[in-house]
Specification:
- The structure holds three protein chains of three kinds.
- Chain A is α/β, with parallel strands linked by helices.
- Chain A has a single domain (about 30-50, about 75-235), classed as P-loop containing nucleotide triphosphate hydrolases (Rossmann fold, 3-Layer(aba) Sandwich).
- Helix content of chain A is about 40%, strand content about 25%.
- In chain A, helix 3 packs parallel to helix 6 (about 140-150).
- Chain B has helices at about 5-30, 30-55, 65-80, 85-110, 115-135, 135-140, 145-150, 170-195, 195-205, 210-215, 220-245, 255-265, 275-290, 300-315, 315-335; strands at about 145, 160-165, 165-170, 245.
- In chain B, helix 12 (about 255-265) runs parallel beside helix 15.
- Chain B starts with a helix and ends with a helix.
- The mean pLDDT of chain B is about 90.
- Chain C has one domain (about 5-120, about 125-285): Orthogonal Bundle (ABC transporter involved in vitamin B12 uptake, BtuC).
- Chain C is globular.
- Chain C starts with 6 loop residues before the first helix and ends in a 14-residue tail after the last helix.
- In chain C, about 50% of the residues are buried.
- The mean pLDDT of chain C is about 90.
- Classes of the chains: A alpha/beta, B mainly alpha, C mainly alpha.
- Chains B and C meet through helix 5, helix 12 and helix 14 of B and helix 4, helix 9 and helix 11 of C.
Chain lengths: ~240, ~325, ~300
């Protein structure tokens, strides 16, 4: 079996005195798209933060075989992990174009960056029209797309997506997940997406983990989880 | 004996220690140093008030030195022009400064954060010029000299003060007066903080939007906080004038406002007990700095370095440290195992 | 009546006001850069600028030309600013804002004390950057020194603007100031962006100091204290989060203060600053975020 792209083993994470993850283990293989589901407070966002290094964590966290358990967020990004945070992290004072350019901060290949900007904008035509607009004036859906586009400018090997559906209308959510799926299938981009909206997430991913109170309660292929009535009712709310 | 009784016993012990310290401290130091202790008490009063405004209500003021000026000049003017006895001017000094504090609080309704700091800073910077301008009342650049123009109004000018049959030196008297008022002021502030008003202050500090949605009147709260901290500053200013027996524009420069803010933050925003340490810090640090060396610039360097080091080691002030230390103790006392 | 008014004098006083305002503007921009990145007003900015001016003096004293000393001082000041941020601000990066404010106050005394200790308290003078001859523009005599000061101030500010607007590092720096968490996630070392901000601010302060000193017959360690007050006032007037505002606010303030001093009798030199502050307060009460500041949006 090929080495997983991302591997977490017995990872704990805490916010000050409060422990949010109590030893979770998960993996994402090359080119795979995986969902992390669960109720509010289950530790989904914390899981992504543990990977990108924005929370105090311990345990084994390996990316491409190398440990990133002690790596600072800036270096994690440089290693090829793009984290689209909860709330999108839009740089509201900067223009759309500047947000994108910032995404490519770690890259040195200027020509390729320009090419990527065109390619990324082709996925998000709405953004292309708003190049010099201040990012703070975009709608919620557009900001989510911008956050995603900015992450892609990094040319990541793994994309961490935190609750992309939050606060967005169903049509917009569907559009975003369609794009995520396309990126995964067409470009082989590995995706780890955290979502409260289990329906949409399971449709767009191959495997899923369900978290409960900081631990992995259920794991399996998305198809299996969609079919499993018991799991759906107790963990996914439908 | 239950936990509750143990808690009460602890409080009684703490209060007893404080009162004993208050009563006997002057015996332990020379008469001259009682004066420094008194001045520490004066700072204590001012920064307790400033803490109510900045630490508990979240409003920044760079102008409390100017409020002390209002109090100090009220005292001096009453003594020199109206022949009031110095101690009796103190309440009025507080009141006048409270009113001015209220007026300063009015811009607070429109301005916040840095802009409020700017407004209070403008007041502090303008104060010496204003004092010089209205020389009829304030004695202009010369100031008012109570020693020359109102000697009969000075308590203890003869060197001894007799109260309730006890006689003591003038410096001791000033110490007892300052810290006596300080303890009373501390008690009042403590009661305010624990009361509904105190919760209102904290609500405004933590989130004005949330506070307004909860029905809190921001205008009233902010101006009240300014007014009450003004009263404290005014009382402190009046005491300072009483102690120095002179006031002039240089007594109350912008530097004083800074010193008060330093004392409050070092003591710990949102912590009243910490203010004791804050007061001693700003009172004694200049002396300590000069002790290190009197070469040009070195005292200032030491002074600034001490402030920086304290802030790096204790970012939430002494009060923050006290809270962190006391928390496990008090939690153990009040929670079931 | 219009013909009897002395337009020449007005024009001259405006230029003089712009020159003072220009000096304040460079320091004000320094304050804004630090405010945007660190969230505090650096009370030591003036003293750092003063220290830089003394370094310039030492260089000139050792044989450098004014402009040679000028640019070398800029480089040294930049390094100094970075060093100060790493040593003194970084440890309190996560502390409450007022704590950092107090640290900058401590820094004020540290830098001032250091300057007094290294250079004895006697007064010194810095040669003039520009000739002191007057120049004739459209029949009105202006001082080259004033015009040169305006040019250098605005030039420095413009260079800074170019840096922030058009370079990758400048972009990262701006982003770090707006949203440090998100900026970290794209690979920017946010902590170092802060240091960069302090370095640039120190360099701008140095410009301010080196333009202030030559205009005075002599200067000492108190050189920049009034300048800091005016710069702060100008920045607040323009809107503390807006560099453009800081520049325009300071220029306006410079002209206002000078015109008040010239034309209004009871505003002697005593009341110049308080009156200016009163005007600013008036403006703030109408526009609480300053002329160009963005009103703070409250997220409910």
């Amino acid at each position: 079996m090929a080495e997983p792209l991302l591997e977490l083993e017995d990872v704990t994470a805490r916010y000050g005195p409060v422990t949010a993850l109590h030893g979770i283990s998960l993996r994402v293989d090359q080119g795979e798209s995986v969902a992390v589901l669960g109720a509010n407070g289950a530790g989904k966002t914390t899981t992504l933060r543990a990977v990108s290094g924005t929370v105090r964590r311990s345990g084994k966290i390996a990316f491409g075989g190398k440990s990133i358990a002690r790596t600072a967020p800036e270096a994690v990004a440089r290693a090829g992990i793009a984290h689209v945070p909860e709330g999108r992290g839009t740089l509201t004072e900067l223009t759309v174009r500047e947000n994108l350019r910032l995404g490519a901060y770690t890259r040195r290949d200027r020509k390729a960056v320009a090419g990527d900007e065109r390619r990324v904008l082709s996925y998000f035509p709405q953004l292309a029209q708003r190049g010099s607009q201040r990012a703070g004036t975009l709608s919620g859906g557009e900001q989510q797309m911008l956050a995603l586009a900015r992450a892609l400018m990094l040319r990541p090997r793994l994309l961490l997506l935190d609750e992309p559906s939050l606060g967005l209308a169903p049509l917009v959510v569907a559009e975003i997940f369609r794009i995520v799926r396309e990126l995964n299938e067409r470009e082989g981009l590995a995706v780890l997406v955290v979502e409260q909206n289990a329906v949409v997430a399971l449709d767009a991913t191959a495997r899923a983990y369900v978290l409960e109170v900081g631990k992995v309660a259920v794991e399996g292929t998305s198809a299996d989880l969609q079919r499993d009535e018991a799991v759906r009712r107790s963990y996914l709310g439908y | 004996m239950g936990r509750r009784a143990l808690g009460i016993a602890l409080w009684v012990a703490v209060v007893a220690v404080i009162l004993v310290a208050y009563a006997f401290a002057p015996r332990l130091v020379s008469d001259f140093h009682s004066r420094d202790l008194a001045e520490a008490g004066i700072f204590f009063i001012a920064i307790v008030g400033l803490n109510l405004l900045t630490g508990y209500t979240g409003q920044i003021s760079l102008g409390h030195g100017a409020l002390m000026a209002v109090g100090g000049y009220t005292t001096a003017a009453l003594m020199v022009h109206e022949h009031w006895r110095d101690v009796w001017t103190i309440p009025l000094a507080g009141l006048t400064a409270g009113v001015v504090g209220f007026l300063i609080g009015l811009p607070a309704l429109r301005l916040s954060g840095l802009y409020l700091a700017m407004a209070t800073f403008a007041f502090a910077v303008a104060m010496p010029s204003l004092l010089r301008k209205f020389s009829g009342l304030t004695g202009g650049g010369q100031g008012l000299r109570m020693l020359e123009d109102a000697p009969l109004q000075i308590t203890g000018l003869s060197g001894t003060v007799t109260i309730f049959g006890h006689s003591m030196t003038q410096n001791h008297f000033l110490y007892y007066l300052a810290w006596g008022i300080g303890l009373v002021g501390f008690l009042i502030a403590w009661l305010i903080v624990r009361s509904r008003v105190g919760r209102t202050f904290r609500a405004v500090r933590d989130s004005e939007v949330a506070a307004t949605s909860a029905g809190i009147n921001l205008a009233w709260t902010k101006t009240f906080a300014f007014a009450i901290s003004g009263v404290y500053a005014g009382v402190a200013g009046g005491l300072l004038a009483t102690q120095n027996q002179i006031v002039n524009p240089l007594t109350f420069t912008f530097l004083l406002s800074i010193v008060l803010l330093v004392g409050t933050v070092v003591g710990g925003l949102g912590s009243l007990p910490g203010m004791v340490v804050g007061a001693f810090f700003v009172e004694y640090l200049p002396d300590v700095s000069t002790h290190v060396s009197t070469a040009p610039g070195v005292p200032d360097f030491v002074y600034g370095a001490a402030i920086i080091v304290v802030m790096i080691l204790l970012p939430t002030g002494v009060g923050g440290l006290l809270k962190r230390v006391a928390r496990p103790l008090t939690t153990r006392l009040y929670l079931r195992p | 009546m219009l013909l009897a008014f002395d337009w020449t004098q007005l024009a001259q006083q405006i230029v003089i006001g712009l020159a003072s305002g220009g000096v304040w503007a460079t320091l004000a921009v320094a304050l804004v850069v630090i405010y945007r990145s660190t969230g505090v007003i650096n009370f030591a900015q003036g003293e750092m600028a003063m220290f830089s001016t003394f370094i310039a003096w030492s260089l000139v004293h050792h044989g450098f030309s004014y402009w040679g000393a000028f640019f070398l001082t800029l480089a040294i000041s930049f390094a100094g600013g970075v060093a100060i941020e790493r040593a003194v601000i970084r440890p309190v990066e996560r502390a409450p804002v007022l704590t950092v404010v107090i640290v900058t106050l401590g820094l004020f005394f540290v830098v001032n004390g250091a300057a007094r200790w290294i250079w004895s308290p006697e007064t010194r003078s810095l040669p003039n950057a520009f000739s002191t001859r007057p120049i004739d523009v459209a029949g009105v005599a202006f001082s080259i020194s004033d015009l040169g000061t305006i040019a250098v101030s605005l030039g420095a500010v413009a260079l800074l603007w170019v840096f922030f607007r058009f370079t990758k590092l400048g972009l990262a720096s701006r982003a770090a100031a707006v949203n440090p968490e998100a900026t970290r996630l794209v690979g920017v070392r946010v902590s170092w962006m802060l240091a960069l901000g302090w370095g640039l601010a120190a360099a701008m302060g140095a410009v301010s100091g080196m333009l202030t000193a030559p205009a005075l017959a002599s200067f000492d360690q108190n050189l920049m204290q009034p300048i800091l007050l005016y710069a702060f006032a100008g920045a607040v007037l323009g809107g503390i989060d807006s560099p453009l505002g800081a520049v325009i606010g300071s220029l306006l303030l410079g002209v206002l203060v000078n015109l008040l001093g010239t034309y209004v009798d009871w505003v002697g030199s005593e009341l110049r600053l308080p009156v200016a502050l009163a005007v600013i307060l008036g403006v703030l009460l109408i526009r609480p975020a300053g002329l160009f500041g963005r009103p703070v949006e409250q997220r409910v």
